[in-house]
Amino acid sequence: MFEVYITKAGKYLPNKAVLNDDMESFLGLINQATSKARRIILRNNKIQSRYYALDHDGKSTHTNAELTKNAIQELFDENFSGDDVELISCGTSTPDIFLPSHAAMVHGLLKNKPVELNSSTGVCCAGMNSLKFGFLSIKAGNTNNAVCTGSERVSLWMIADKFEQEVLNLKSLEEQPIIAFKKDFLRWMLSDGAGAFLLENKPRGPISLKIEWMEGYSYAHELETCMYAGGEKQEDGSIKPWSDYNPDEWLNQSIFSIKQDVKLLDAYILEKGAQSMRDALAKNKVSSDEIDYFLPHVSSHYFVEGLHKSLAEKGMDIPREKWFMNLARVGNVGSASIYLALEELMNSGKLNKGDKVLLSVPESGRFSYSYAYLTVC
Protein backbone atom coordinates (compact mmCIF):
# COMPACT_ATOMS: atom_id res chain seq x y z
CA MET A 1 0.00 0.00 0.00
CA PHE A 2 1.27 3.44 -0.96
CA GLU A 3 1.04 6.69 0.95
CA VAL A 4 -1.13 9.43 -0.57
CA TYR A 5 -0.48 13.17 -0.45
CA ILE A 6 -2.39 16.25 -1.54
CA THR A 7 0.51 18.10 -3.14
CA LYS A 8 -1.34 21.05 -4.66
CA ALA A 9 -4.78 22.67 -4.57
CA GLY A 10 -6.46 24.94 -7.11
CA LYS A 11 -9.75 26.81 -7.35
CA TYR A 12 -11.85 28.76 -9.80
CA LEU A 13 -14.52 31.24 -8.74
CA PRO A 14 -16.32 32.78 -11.73
CA ASN A 15 -16.68 36.50 -12.38
CA LYS A 16 -16.77 39.01 -9.52
CA ALA A 17 -18.09 38.43 -6.00
CA VAL A 18 -21.83 39.07 -5.71
CA LEU A 19 -22.90 40.87 -2.54
CA ASN A 20 -26.20 40.20 -0.78
CA ASP A 21 -28.01 43.26 -2.11
CA ASP A 22 -27.08 42.36 -5.68
CA MET A 23 -28.31 38.75 -5.68
CA GLU A 24 -31.73 39.38 -7.19
CA SER A 25 -30.19 41.46 -9.98
CA PHE A 26 -28.52 38.23 -11.12
CA LEU A 27 -31.17 35.64 -10.17
CA GLY A 28 -34.18 37.81 -11.02
CA LEU A 29 -37.51 38.40 -9.30
CA ILE A 30 -40.13 35.67 -9.19
CA ASN A 31 -43.52 37.16 -10.12
CA GLN A 32 -41.84 40.62 -10.14
CA ALA A 33 -41.71 40.56 -6.33
CA THR A 34 -38.76 40.63 -3.94
CA SER A 35 -38.48 37.41 -1.94
CA LYS A 36 -39.87 37.78 1.57
CA ALA A 37 -37.58 35.00 2.80
CA ARG A 38 -34.32 36.39 1.41
CA ARG A 39 -33.28 38.73 4.24
CA ILE A 40 -34.16 36.23 6.97
CA ILE A 41 -32.19 33.45 5.27
CA LEU A 42 -29.16 35.69 4.65
CA ARG A 43 -29.21 36.93 8.24
CA ASN A 44 -29.04 33.33 9.45
CA ASN A 45 -26.47 31.98 7.01
CA LYS A 46 -24.19 35.06 7.38
CA ILE A 47 -22.94 34.69 3.82
CA GLN A 48 -21.73 38.10 2.64
CA SER A 49 -20.55 37.31 -0.88
CA ARG A 50 -20.67 34.48 -3.38
CA TYR A 51 -19.95 33.82 -7.07
CA TYR A 52 -22.26 33.11 -10.00
CA ALA A 53 -21.42 31.82 -13.46
CA LEU A 54 -23.92 34.42 -14.72
CA ASP A 55 -23.87 37.87 -16.20
CA HIS A 56 -26.23 40.68 -15.14
CA ASP A 57 -28.80 39.46 -17.67
CA GLY A 58 -28.92 36.03 -16.04
CA LYS A 59 -27.06 34.43 -18.96
CA SER A 60 -24.49 31.69 -18.44
CA THR A 61 -20.80 32.62 -18.55
CA HIS A 62 -19.38 29.16 -17.79
CA THR A 63 -20.55 25.56 -17.79
CA ASN A 64 -19.84 23.35 -14.79
CA ALA A 65 -17.28 21.48 -16.90
CA GLU A 66 -15.52 24.77 -17.71
CA LEU A 67 -15.41 25.79 -14.05
CA THR A 68 -13.87 22.42 -13.23
CA LYS A 69 -11.35 22.56 -16.06
CA ASN A 70 -10.24 26.03 -14.94
CA ALA A 71 -9.70 24.81 -11.37
CA ILE A 72 -7.69 21.80 -12.60
CA GLN A 73 -5.45 24.00 -14.71
CA GLU A 74 -4.37 25.78 -11.52
CA LEU A 75 -2.62 22.51 -10.58
CA PHE A 76 -0.34 22.54 -13.60
CA ASP A 77 3.15 24.04 -13.52
CA GLU A 78 6.62 23.35 -14.89
CA ASN A 79 6.79 20.16 -12.77
CA PHE A 80 3.36 18.72 -13.52
CA SER A 81 1.33 19.13 -16.71
CA GLY A 82 -1.91 17.81 -18.11
CA ASP A 83 0.03 15.06 -19.86
CA ASP A 84 1.20 13.75 -16.47
CA VAL A 85 -2.36 13.14 -15.18
CA GLU A 86 -3.31 9.47 -14.80
CA LEU A 87 -6.79 9.75 -13.24
CA ILE A 88 -9.48 12.45 -13.23
CA SER A 89 -12.13 12.03 -10.52
CA CYS A 90 -14.89 14.66 -10.47
CA GLY A 91 -17.74 15.17 -8.03
CA THR A 92 -20.72 17.48 -8.48
CA SER A 93 -24.40 17.86 -7.63
CA THR A 94 -25.14 19.89 -10.75
CA PRO A 95 -23.68 18.33 -13.91
CA ASP A 96 -24.36 20.18 -17.13
CA ILE A 97 -26.05 17.16 -18.71
CA PHE A 98 -27.31 13.72 -17.66
CA LEU A 99 -25.00 11.87 -20.06
CA PRO A 100 -22.03 11.60 -20.66
CA SER A 101 -20.55 11.85 -17.19
CA HIS A 102 -19.26 15.12 -15.74
CA ALA A 103 -15.68 13.78 -15.67
CA ALA A 104 -15.89 12.89 -19.36
CA MET A 105 -17.00 16.43 -20.22
CA VAL A 106 -14.15 17.89 -18.17
CA HIS A 107 -11.64 15.56 -19.81
CA GLY A 108 -12.95 16.66 -23.20
CA LEU A 109 -12.10 20.27 -22.36
CA LEU A 110 -8.63 19.46 -20.99
CA LYS A 111 -7.60 17.75 -24.25
CA ASN A 112 -4.56 16.15 -22.63
CA LYS A 113 -4.27 12.36 -23.16
CA PRO A 114 -6.16 9.10 -22.42
CA VAL A 115 -6.81 8.83 -18.65
CA GLU A 116 -9.00 6.89 -16.25
CA LEU A 117 -12.20 8.72 -15.27
CA ASN A 118 -14.55 8.66 -12.30
CA SER A 119 -17.67 10.74 -11.71
CA SER A 120 -19.25 10.99 -8.25
CA THR A 121 -22.82 12.19 -7.87
CA GLY A 122 -24.89 13.15 -4.85
CA VAL A 123 -24.92 16.43 -2.97
CA CYS A 124 -22.05 17.89 -0.89
CA CYS A 125 -20.35 14.52 -0.34
CA ALA A 126 -19.86 14.12 -4.10
CA GLY A 127 -16.61 16.06 -3.86
CA MET A 128 -15.34 13.93 -0.99
CA ASN A 129 -16.35 10.75 -2.81
CA SER A 130 -14.33 11.86 -5.84
CA LEU A 131 -11.39 12.49 -3.49
CA LYS A 132 -11.74 9.05 -1.95
CA PHE A 133 -11.68 7.36 -5.37
CA GLY A 134 -8.38 9.10 -6.12
CA PHE A 135 -7.05 8.31 -2.66
CA LEU A 136 -7.83 4.58 -2.98
CA SER A 137 -6.45 4.40 -6.53
CA ILE A 138 -3.05 5.71 -5.43
CA LYS A 139 -3.17 3.76 -2.15
CA ALA A 140 -3.59 0.52 -4.10
CA GLY A 141 -0.87 1.39 -6.62
CA ASN A 142 -3.31 1.55 -9.51
CA THR A 143 -2.14 5.07 -10.37
CA ASN A 144 0.73 7.29 -9.27
CA ASN A 145 -1.39 10.43 -9.23
CA ALA A 146 -4.97 11.62 -9.44
CA VAL A 147 -6.72 14.92 -10.02
CA CYS A 148 -9.84 15.16 -7.84
CA THR A 149 -12.46 17.89 -8.00
CA GLY A 150 -15.65 19.25 -6.50
CA SER A 151 -17.68 21.78 -8.48
CA GLU A 152 -21.12 23.35 -8.76
CA ARG A 153 -22.94 25.54 -11.24
CA VAL A 154 -26.26 25.87 -9.45
CA SER A 155 -27.14 29.50 -10.25
CA LEU A 156 -28.79 28.58 -13.56
CA TRP A 157 -31.11 26.29 -11.60
CA MET A 158 -32.26 29.21 -9.44
CA ILE A 159 -32.92 32.06 -11.84
CA ALA A 160 -36.47 33.42 -11.81
CA ASP A 161 -37.21 32.23 -15.37
CA LYS A 162 -37.02 28.62 -14.18
CA PHE A 163 -40.10 29.25 -11.97
CA GLU A 164 -42.12 31.39 -14.38
CA GLN A 165 -44.32 28.59 -15.68
CA GLU A 166 -45.14 27.40 -12.14
CA VAL A 167 -46.19 30.94 -11.18
CA LEU A 168 -48.43 31.18 -14.27
CA ASN A 169 -49.95 27.81 -13.43
CA LEU A 170 -50.70 28.89 -9.85
CA LYS A 171 -52.39 32.04 -11.16
CA SER A 172 -54.53 30.02 -13.55
CA LEU A 173 -55.67 27.90 -10.61
CA GLU A 174 -56.50 31.11 -8.71
CA GLU A 175 -53.91 30.28 -6.06
CA GLN A 176 -51.28 32.57 -4.54
CA PRO A 177 -48.36 32.71 -7.02
CA ILE A 178 -45.76 32.15 -4.29
CA ILE A 179 -42.98 29.59 -4.74
CA ALA A 180 -42.81 27.13 -1.84
CA PHE A 181 -40.23 27.90 0.84
CA LYS A 182 -38.49 24.57 0.19
CA LYS A 183 -37.53 25.98 -3.24
CA ASP A 184 -37.06 29.68 -2.41
CA PHE A 185 -34.86 28.83 0.61
CA LEU A 186 -32.02 27.43 -1.48
CA ARG A 187 -31.94 30.38 -3.91
CA TRP A 188 -30.23 32.40 -1.13
CA MET A 189 -27.92 29.61 0.05
CA LEU A 190 -26.07 28.21 -2.96
CA SER A 191 -23.42 29.47 -5.35
CA ASP A 192 -20.97 28.47 -8.09
CA GLY A 193 -17.32 27.50 -8.22
CA ALA A 194 -14.84 24.64 -8.44
CA GLY A 195 -11.90 23.29 -6.49
CA ALA A 196 -9.25 20.73 -7.41
CA PHE A 197 -6.59 18.68 -5.62
CA LEU A 198 -3.55 16.98 -7.07
CA LEU A 199 -2.89 13.68 -5.29
CA GLU A 200 0.46 11.92 -5.60
CA ASN A 201 2.27 9.02 -3.94
CA LYS A 202 5.13 11.28 -2.78
CA PRO A 203 5.12 14.71 -1.10
CA ARG A 204 6.14 17.68 -3.26
CA GLY A 205 6.63 21.40 -2.84
CA PRO A 206 6.65 23.48 0.34
CA ILE A 207 3.37 22.05 1.68
CA SER A 208 1.92 18.56 1.21
CA LEU A 209 -0.89 16.95 3.15
CA LYS A 210 -0.71 13.23 3.79
CA ILE A 211 -4.16 11.61 3.74
CA GLU A 212 -4.11 9.34 6.77
CA TRP A 213 -7.64 8.00 6.30
CA MET A 214 -11.09 8.72 4.89
CA GLU A 215 -14.46 7.56 6.21
CA GLY A 216 -18.04 7.84 4.98
CA TYR A 217 -21.43 7.17 6.57
CA SER A 218 -24.97 7.14 5.16
CA TYR A 219 -28.18 7.10 7.19
CA ALA A 220 -30.51 6.61 4.21
CA HIS A 221 -31.56 3.27 5.67
CA GLU A 222 -33.42 5.05 8.46
CA LEU A 223 -34.11 8.62 7.25
CA GLU A 224 -36.15 9.89 4.30
CA THR A 225 -34.95 12.26 1.62
CA CYS A 226 -34.25 15.83 2.73
CA MET A 227 -32.65 17.62 -0.26
CA TYR A 228 -33.56 16.62 -3.80
CA ALA A 229 -34.06 17.68 -7.41
CA GLY A 230 -35.75 16.02 -10.36
CA GLY A 231 -38.71 14.72 -8.38
CA GLU A 232 -41.32 15.56 -5.79
CA LYS A 233 -41.81 14.28 -2.26
CA GLN A 234 -44.99 12.32 -1.58
CA GLU A 235 -47.10 12.08 1.57
CA ASP A 236 -45.37 8.85 2.61
CA GLY A 237 -41.92 10.44 2.28
CA SER A 238 -41.03 8.67 -0.96
CA ILE A 239 -39.84 10.57 -4.03
CA LYS A 240 -41.79 10.45 -7.27
CA PRO A 241 -39.15 10.76 -10.03
CA TRP A 242 -39.31 13.25 -12.91
CA SER A 243 -39.75 10.41 -15.42
CA ASP A 244 -43.12 9.54 -13.83
CA TYR A 245 -44.46 13.06 -14.48
CA ASN A 246 -45.90 14.38 -17.73
CA PRO A 247 -43.69 16.93 -19.53
CA ASP A 248 -46.12 19.80 -18.79
CA GLU A 249 -45.87 18.98 -15.07
CA TRP A 250 -42.07 19.41 -15.23
CA LEU A 251 -42.67 23.12 -15.80
CA ASN A 252 -45.92 23.64 -13.93
CA GLN A 253 -44.48 22.19 -10.71
CA SER A 254 -40.79 23.12 -11.18
CA ILE A 255 -39.92 19.45 -10.85
CA PHE A 256 -36.25 20.01 -11.65
CA SER A 257 -35.74 22.72 -9.03
CA ILE A 258 -33.58 21.97 -5.99
CA LYS A 259 -35.68 21.56 -2.85
CA GLN A 260 -34.98 20.99 0.84
CA ASP A 261 -37.17 19.76 3.69
CA VAL A 262 -36.03 22.31 6.27
CA LYS A 263 -37.79 20.65 9.22
CA LEU A 264 -36.06 17.36 8.49
CA LEU A 265 -32.75 19.18 8.10
CA ASP A 266 -33.06 20.80 11.54
CA ALA A 267 -34.09 17.54 13.16
CA TYR A 268 -31.19 15.35 12.01
CA ILE A 269 -28.24 17.13 10.38
CA LEU A 270 -26.38 17.88 13.63
CA GLU A 271 -27.36 14.72 15.49
CA LYS A 272 -26.13 12.39 12.74
CA GLY A 273 -23.10 14.59 12.11
CA ALA A 274 -21.90 14.26 15.69
CA GLN A 275 -22.66 10.53 15.72
CA SER A 276 -20.75 9.84 12.49
CA MET A 277 -17.75 11.97 13.47
CA ARG A 278 -17.49 10.22 16.83
CA ASP A 279 -17.55 6.85 15.03
CA ALA A 280 -14.94 7.95 12.47
CA LEU A 281 -12.51 9.19 15.11
CA ALA A 282 -13.04 6.15 17.32
CA LYS A 283 -12.51 3.73 14.43
CA ASN A 284 -9.17 5.36 13.63
CA LYS A 285 -8.16 5.89 17.27
CA VAL A 286 -7.94 9.67 17.00
CA SER A 287 -8.83 12.02 19.84
CA SER A 288 -10.40 15.38 19.08
CA ASP A 289 -7.53 16.91 21.12
CA GLU A 290 -5.13 15.88 18.35
CA ILE A 291 -6.88 18.03 15.74
CA ASP A 292 -5.08 21.31 14.99
CA TYR A 293 -7.44 22.54 12.26
CA PHE A 294 -11.08 21.54 11.90
CA LEU A 295 -12.66 22.31 8.52
CA PRO A 296 -16.40 21.68 8.77
CA HIS A 297 -18.48 22.29 5.69
CA VAL A 298 -21.68 23.91 6.93
CA SER A 299 -24.40 25.27 4.66
CA SER A 300 -25.14 28.14 7.03
CA HIS A 301 -23.62 29.81 10.10
CA TYR A 302 -26.98 29.07 11.67
CA PHE A 303 -25.64 25.56 12.38
CA VAL A 304 -22.20 26.48 13.75
CA GLU A 305 -23.06 26.85 17.44
CA GLY A 306 -25.33 23.84 17.32
CA LEU A 307 -22.60 21.74 15.72
CA HIS A 308 -20.06 22.85 18.34
CA LYS A 309 -22.48 21.89 21.10
CA SER A 310 -23.43 18.55 19.52
CA LEU A 311 -19.79 17.55 19.10
CA ALA A 312 -18.94 18.57 22.68
CA GLU A 313 -21.82 16.50 24.02
CA LYS A 314 -20.28 13.45 22.36
CA GLY A 315 -16.82 14.12 23.78
CA MET A 316 -15.37 16.12 20.87
CA ASP A 317 -15.04 19.66 22.19
CA ILE A 318 -12.93 21.30 19.49
CA PRO A 319 -12.22 24.94 20.44
CA ARG A 320 -13.63 27.42 17.93
CA GLU A 321 -10.17 28.91 17.35
CA LYS A 322 -9.26 25.62 15.65
CA TRP A 323 -12.15 25.91 13.18
CA PHE A 324 -11.30 27.18 9.70
CA MET A 325 -14.20 28.37 7.51
CA ASN A 326 -14.63 30.65 4.50
CA LEU A 327 -18.39 30.35 4.04
CA ALA A 328 -19.00 34.09 4.49
CA ARG A 329 -16.58 34.99 1.69
CA VAL A 330 -17.21 32.34 -0.98
CA GLY A 331 -20.70 31.09 -0.10
CA ASN A 332 -22.01 27.55 0.02
CA VAL A 333 -20.58 25.88 -3.08
CA GLY A 334 -21.81 22.39 -2.22
CA SER A 335 -19.36 19.65 -3.21
CA ALA A 336 -16.68 22.26 -3.95
CA SER A 337 -16.82 23.92 -0.53
CA ILE A 338 -14.35 21.64 1.23
CA TYR A 339 -11.88 22.02 -1.66
CA LEU A 340 -12.13 25.81 -1.48
CA ALA A 341 -11.63 25.83 2.29
CA LEU A 342 -8.59 23.54 2.24
CA GLU A 343 -7.07 25.40 -0.72
CA GLU A 344 -7.32 28.64 1.26
CA LEU A 345 -5.80 27.06 4.37
CA MET A 346 -2.94 25.49 2.39
CA ASN A 347 -2.05 28.90 0.96
CA SER A 348 -2.58 30.86 4.19
CA GLY A 349 0.89 30.33 5.67
CA LYS A 350 -0.72 29.03 8.87
CA LEU A 351 0.15 25.35 8.52
CA ASN A 352 3.19 23.84 10.19
CA LYS A 353 4.73 20.44 9.63
CA GLY A 354 3.06 17.84 11.82
CA ASP A 355 -0.28 19.70 12.09
CA LYS A 356 -3.36 17.52 11.91
CA VAL A 357 -6.33 18.62 9.80
CA LEU A 358 -9.82 17.10 9.87
CA LEU A 359 -12.20 17.64 6.95
CA SER A 360 -15.89 17.16 7.75
CA VAL A 361 -18.58 17.23 5.07
CA PRO A 362 -22.28 16.57 5.71
CA GLU A 363 -24.87 16.08 2.99
CA SER A 364 -28.57 16.53 3.67
CA GLY A 365 -29.65 14.66 0.51
CA ARG A 366 -30.49 11.61 2.59
CA PHE A 367 -28.04 12.35 5.39
CA SER A 368 -24.53 11.24 4.46
CA TYR A 369 -21.24 12.32 6.03
CA SER A 370 -17.61 12.16 4.84
CA TYR A 371 -14.36 12.70 6.74
CA ALA A 372 -10.67 12.94 5.89
CA TYR A 373 -7.77 13.17 8.34
CA LEU A 374 -4.60 14.85 7.08
CA THR A 375 -1.05 15.43 8.32
CA VAL A 376 0.97 18.43 7.14
CA CYS A 377 4.39 17.40 5.84
UniProtKB/TrEMBL annotation:
GO BP annotation list: secondary metabolite biosynthetic process
Pfam families hit by this protein: ACP_syn_III_C
Record's keyword terms, sorted: Acyltransferase, Transferase
Superkingdom of the organism of origin: Bacteria
InterPro entries to which the protein is assigned, alphabetical: ACP_syn_III_C, Thiolase-like
Domain spans labelled Beta-ketoacyl-[acyl-carrier-protein] synthase III C-terminal: 281-360
PANTHER family xref list: 3-OXOACYL-[ACYL-CARRIER-PROTEIN] SYNTHASE 3, BETA-KETOACYL-[ACYL-CARRIER-PROTEIN] SYNTHASE III
Transmembrane segments annotated in the record for this chain: none
Stated name of the protein: Beta-ketoacyl-ACP synthase III
Database matches in SUPFAM superfamilies: Thiolase-like (SSF53901)
A GO molecular-function descriptor: acyltransferase activity
Keyword flag Acyltransferase: yes
